[in-house]
Write a structure and sequence with these properties.
The structure holds 2 protein chains of 2 kinds.
Chain A (H helix, E strand, L loop, with lengths): L4 E3 L4 H11 L11 E4 L5 H6 L7 E4 L11 E4 L2 E5 L4 H6 L1 H6 L1 H8 L4 H6 L2 H5 L6 H4 L41 H7 L3 E6 L2 E6 L22 E8 L7 E6 L10 E10 L2 E10 L6 E2 L1 H7 L6 H11 L11 H18 L4
Helix pairs in contact in A: 5-9, 10-11, 11-12
Chain B lengths: L20 H5 L15 E7 L5 E7 L1 H4 L4 E5 L27 E2 L5 E7 L2 H10 L1 E6 L12 E4 L12 E2 L2 H7 L2 E9 L11 E7 L2 E5 L5 H12 L6 E4 L16 H12 L3 E4 L2 H7 L6 E9 L5 E12 L10 H4 L7 E10 L13 H19 L3 H7 L17 H12 L12 E2 L2 E13 L1 E2 L2 E8 L4 E4 L9 H13 L6 E4 L16 H25 L13 E4 L2 E4 L4 E3 H8 L3 E8 L8 H6 L6 E2 L9 E13 L5 E11 L6 H20 L5 E2 L4 E2 L17 E6 L23 H13 L10 H5 L1
Parallel strand pairs in B: 1-13, 11-12, 15-16, 21-22, 29-32
Antiparallel strand pairs in B: 1-5, 2-4, 2-6, 3-5, 7-16, 8-16, 9-14, 10-11, 10-13, 14-15, 17-18, 18-28, 19-27, 20-21, 20-26, 23-24, 24-25, 28-29, 30-31
Helix pairs in contact in B: 9-17, 12-13, 16-17
Classes of the chains: A alpha+beta, B alpha+beta.
């Protein structure tokens, strides 16, 4: 690991001020000289591996604003402070009651120890775990723009079948983000240009020919909160995660499902897919396919077909298309059968 | 008594807690990289990014500019020492800094030494190599492999075993199968990282390194460094998991020793998890073809097992489990053949039950297929083919309790409730499958020395240069002394893991408990004999008693008639403060030079299929229930039962723990574990525990170990068969059998994953 300067800014404005002094408008947050750190469960790992090499770390854990550490439940929805730890949100009674899909997505991620360290904002910004990205000796367009992609023709079992480009097929491995994108969450951020709201669906960028540009954030911008709108019918929601072992593994395929049912038929469905796409993935075609339909195995399968209509397999990940469809069918039927 | 402390049955010792348990759970156990060394410096390895070619240039300037950098050891700096040797004490013949040739991915190209670990690591990362690159050969099916017969290439396989006329018997068999199986590359990944700390004190070299073979390493390291073995001391008091990976010494040890010598300061090098994949050994990738022919009555008449194993270009590491698979059942005729497939890979090595894990997996998966082909219950099929003598040399088994194992495990598992029809068992959306398989491991022992001291206060010290790799050998050695000398275990101190102690063989092949306990037993009996002599001498408290009427219990020598003498009083009479005995044990069949070879780090193994009078194996039977989701096809193992018979069980707690660990590993081998190779570059892809999956707690639910009583005096004086490697043999086949039962899909390539079931 390279030596670096470590600072603990006292509040958000101080953190933004330092960051803007040591970064430029053109800097990507993941490539800037100065970078923010919260739980450190992803960045510290990548610094040890030489994948990330900021020479200045701004530790956000001492920021004094109390709201950063609070979960506020109101009639408008839920507001998660950016520094709330994954474990706190997963165990929060109102989160579990009102948004099971959020609690599930957090509970099924990582390990207890990591959930106690990782912040919610850091979690949504976690970077891909692509083996070829993680290790600096391989060609990787995301790590070194223009260097090529070793995963494309390599061992790509865990890689994406949706949202990939000729430059990058790395999967977005997060779980929480699938719940957030399904629920139309909003990110609040503050930077040198002021505060703003970003719809969650616009936070992450498709790789296209610039896979090194991962999010909409500026290098001096800090996520301060994640807001989830009120949605009474989100009580009928769940997150299904399929993986090689029972715990502590990334999803091979996952589905976040929120259902508004009128008897047997679907008034509205929200669907997001994890483990199969390059970014948090809202499956709007699948949602549309279900609208007004009776939810049964046949309509669920039709929705799953729609969700994966554009999927593109590589040598080792073709099974993910079938697995992704079945995961969604199972998630839809299990969500339908929830007692709420 | 609870599950962790099984009640001892016949011929089993008490479930004493490990004597070092408290040290381990409180963090006080000193693992080699924890041991203090004054004025220490830190080393970090730089390794190659290619698998084949030549290093044409190294750029060291950036590394040299790192503040705190002290030295870089690289090409040219090892010229005055000998190249490593491949064998039981050496992992490979590749001397990575002796030669600019790159033989495999992740080969050492330099060692950076600095004042801090961080500086060493940074410098190592800044070392850049230029290569003359060649297209490497990754594995089976890659262009450029070279296939050669394995027999005769290693002492592991002198010749392919065979019996009778397989071709004729197979041709005539009314029921037959012909199937191919494969197992992937696997790495040990012990939680304790690999490390070497080298300290020179004048001409004396002290190495702190986790080792399963301190005596062998002493000799091999002295040879490489061209110094007197008496000047080398390997210290390895605690080892945080080994599984074979710390058996042979790797080239790193000599490189770190040279660095410490150049610098005149101790150097500690802890390799990263990633670097271990290329700088240590691993389980070779294997392929198998099995043919079985049987009559309609289920009696096997023909068995053929062909194996292919990937190894490195220069070294013939041989897996060859055909000695065990060829003797497993009453086959009639046997044909085996093992081939080595050379590729541009690092040299494989021993990994827990090295021959049996892959070969018995293939055999037992085939046995299950054959039972299906015969329409027969798989347990019944094995019972029908239970041999009276082994089919190759027609020798009897010293003991064989396989059927008892099957019966007790089947009973505990509830095998009778299994509906044999494929796919017939189901609960909601979950398909249920049940399967079983045989476990087998050869019983061997090797020469071993031990020193035992008993003081008049009843304190016992046991010294033996064996290795506590987590098996509990320190505890059972202490238990043996405690039992023989009649003192409580709390009064026994056991020293291990240092070649200044009496030599013990490599801690591999499940020989340690038998070999170490036999030596400790012999030393204890010599102490007993001395005290008997004192007690029964004229005027002594037990004068007139004969030795065979005496025993030790509760700090006393007790005579059959009821008379007794306190040991402390016997010491007084004898005018002694302590009695110390040095004993050397040699197993039956040992050659005249066997003990001398022990001191030279070349222990002879005896037992298994090698003895004249009988073949010696431990057996077990494992039963597995799998649940497979009917939509998403993930496989989970809610239940596993294993019953094992392994002669005398020294300690039911540590024995259960060993077998449990093996069974869990077996589940991992079945469902999770594989080192993925990028076939274009012959490079490992998933070099960390994020992507190299092993079972986590949530994967292991109801696991039951049954210890089946067995008495076998033929194996060794301690009557111990050893079971460290027995538990993970057969497990993967039992899982494959259960997956077939649930789904009707026969998966022959490990690991069994969603990919194969969802297609």
């Amino acid at each position: 690991m390279r030596p670096f300067i470590y600072e603990q800014p006292a509040d958000i404005s101080a953190a933004v001020a330092i960051a803007s002094r040591f970064t430029t408008d053109d800097d990507q947050p993941t490539r800037a000289n100065a970078q923010f750190i919260a739980g450190g469960t992803n960045l510290a790992d990548y610094m040890k591996l030489g994948v990330a090499a900021p020479n200045r770390l701004l530790d956000l854990n001492r920021l004094e604003e109390p709201a950063l550490r609070q979960i506020r439940v109101s009639d408008d929805g839920i507001r998660f402070g950016a520094l709330v730890r994954m474990g706190e949100a997963a165990d929060h009674g109102e989160v579990k009651r009102r948004y099971p899909v959020i609690a599930d997505s957090l509970r099924l991620a990582a390990s207890g120890q990591i959930r106690n360290m990782a912040s919610l904002a850091g979690n949504v910004l976690q970077r891909t775990r692509c083996e070829y990205f993680r290790e600096t000796s391989w060609a990787c367009n995301k790590r070194v723009p223009g260097s090529g992609c070793a995963a494309m023709e390599g061992f790509n079992r865990q890689h994406a079948v949706l949202g990939a480009s000729d430059a990058c097929i790395a999967t977005y491995h997060g779980d929480f983000a699938q719940a957030l994108i399904a629920l139309d969450a909003v990110i609040r951020a503050e930077g040198s240009r002021g505060a703003r709201k970003i719809p969650f669906a616009r936070l992450h960028r498709l790789p296209r020919d610039t896979p090194h540009i991962e999010t909409d954030l500026a290098a001096d911008e800090i996520i301060t909160a994640i807001e989830v709108p009120a949605m009474p019918w989100a009580r009928r929601s769940r997150y299904l995660k399929i993986r090689d072992r029972e715990s502590y593994a990334f999803a091979l395929a996952s589905a976040a499902v929120v259902l508004d049912l009128d008897g047997d038929s679907v008034r509205e469905a929200r669907i997001a897919l994890g483990g199969v796409a390059t970014v948090p993935w809202r499956a709007r075609a699948a949602e549309a396919a279900l609208q007004g339909k009776k939810l049964d195995e046949a309509s669920a399968s039709a929705a799953a077909e729609a969700a994966f209509a554009d999927a593109e397999p590589r040598q080792h990940n073709a099974f993910k298309i079938e697995l992704g469809k079945r995961t969604l069918v199972r998630a839809l039927l299990e969500t339908r059968d929830m007692k709420v | 008594m609870d599950a962790a402390t099984p009640k001892p049955r016949e011929n089993m010792g008490e479930p004493l807690p490990r004597i070092d348990a408290r040290l381990k759970v409180t963090g006080q156990a000193g693992y080699p990289a924890d041991l203090p060394a004054a004025n220490i410096t830190y080393g970090a390895l730089a390794t190659s990014d290619i698998a084949k070619g030549r290093v044409t240039r190294l750029h060291l300037d950036d590394a040299r500019a790192v503040p705190g950098l002290l030295d870089i050891v690289t090409y040219g700096d090892m010229d005055k020492v000998e190249k490593p040797k491949f064998g039981n004490s050496g992992a490979t013949s590749i001397g990575p800094l002796h030669d600019r040739t790159i033989f495999h991915d992740g080969q050492i190209i330099a060692l950076a030494v600095a004042e801090t670990f961080e500086a060493a690591e940074e410098a190592a990362q800044l070392i850049r190599a230029e290569y003359e690159e060649e297209k490497p050969t990754a594995s089976f099916d890659s262009p450029g492999t070279k296939t050669v017969p394995a027999a005769g290439k290693s002492t592991i396989l002198k010749e392919d075993v065979r019996a009778g006329d397989f071709d004729a018997a197979y041709a005539a068999a009314p029921v037959k199968i012909d199937a191919r199986y494969s197992t992937p590359t696997q790495h040990h990944n012990p939680i304790e990282l690999f490390s070497t700390t080298a300290l020179w004190q004048g001409d004396q070299l002290i190495v702190h390194e986790p080792s399963q073979n301190v005596t062998g390493w002493k000799v091999e390291l002295a040879r490489q460094l061209k110094i007197d073995p008496a000047n080398v001391r390997i210290v390895s008091p605690f080892i945080g998991g080994a599984f074979g990976s710390k058996g042979p010494m790797t080239p790193r040890t000599a490189i770190v020793a040279v660095a410490a010598k150049r610098l005149g300061r101790p150097v500690r090098c802890v390799t990263s998890r990633m670097q271990a994949f290329g700088t240590q050994t691993y389980r070779a990738e294997t392929r198998h073809r099995i043919r079985i022919g049987a009559g309609k009555d289920g009696r096997i008449t023909a068995f053929a097992h062909e194996g292919w194993e990937v190894t490195s270009r220069p070294d013939a590491y041989v897996v060859a489990g055909t000695s065990a698979t060829g003797r497993m059942y009453d086959y009639g005729s046997v044909l085996t053949h093992v081939s080595l497939v050379r590729a541009d890979r690092n040299t494989p090595g021993y990994m827990r039950s090295p021959p049996e894990t892959p070969y018995v997996y293939a055999l037992e998966n085939a046995m299950d297929e054959m039972a299906v082909a015969l329409g027969m219950d798989p347990v019944e099929f094995r019972r029908i083919n239970e041999p009276k003598v082994e089919p190759i040399g027609k020798k009897p088994f010293s003991s064989r309790s396989l059927i008892q194992c099957y019966e007790q495990a089947a009973d505990a598992f509830g095998w009778a409730k299994r509906d044999r029809k494929v796919g017939a068992m189901r609960e909601g959306d979950w398909l249920i499958g049940m399967g079983c398989a045989t476990a087998i491991y050869p019983t061997a022992a090797a020469p071993c020395a031990a020193r035992v001291r008993l003081t008049s206060d009843g304190d016992v010290r046991v010294q033996c240069g064996s290795h506590e790799i987590g098996t509990g050998v320190r505890t059972v050695a202490g238990q043996m002394a405690s039992e023989r000398l009649g003192v409580p275990i709390g009064k026994v101190n056991v020293e291990m893991g240092d070649n200044n102690l009496p030599p013990a063989p490599v801690s591999g092949g499940s020989i340690s408990t038998a070999s170490v306990c036999s030596a400790v037993l012999k030393a204890c009996d010599a102490i007993r004999a001395k005290l008997y002599a004192g007690a029964t001498a004229e005027g002594g408290p037990l004068a007139g008693s004969h030795n065979e009427e005496l025993d030790f219990a509760d700090g006393k020598i007790v005579a059959k008639g009821g008379a007794s003498a306190k040991i402390e009083d016997v010491f007084k009479i004898m005018q002694l403060g302590a009695i110390e005995e040095y004993a050397e044990f040699a197993p039956k069949g040992a050659t005249p030079g066997a003990l001398k070879k022990l001191y030279a780090g070349q222990p002879e193994f005896h037992g298994g299929d090698q003895d004249e009078d009988s073949v010696k194996y431990a057996f077990g039977a494992e039963f597995v229930e799998v649940r497979i989701n009917s939509y998403t096809r993930e496989i989970r193992v809610p239940r596993i039962v294993g019953a094992f018979a392994a002669g005398r069980i020294m300690n039911t707690r540590t024995a259960r723990s060993q077998l449990m660990g093996g069974m869990i590993w077996g589940i991992g081998q079945a469902l999770h574990e594989a080192t993925e190779v990028d076939r274009r570059y012959a490079r490992y892809v998933n070099r960390d525990l994020q992507d190299y999956l092993v079972p986590v707690n949530a994967d292991i639910q109801d696991l039951q170990v049954i210890l089946v009583p067995e008495i076998d005096h033929a194996v060794n004086p301690a009557g111990v068969k050893g079971l460290g490697e027995l538990g993970n043999v057969g497990t993967a086949a039992a899982v494959a059998s259960a997956v077939y039962h649930a789904t009707g899909k026969r998966i022959r390539d490990l690991p069994i994953r969603i990919d194969q079931l969802i297609a």
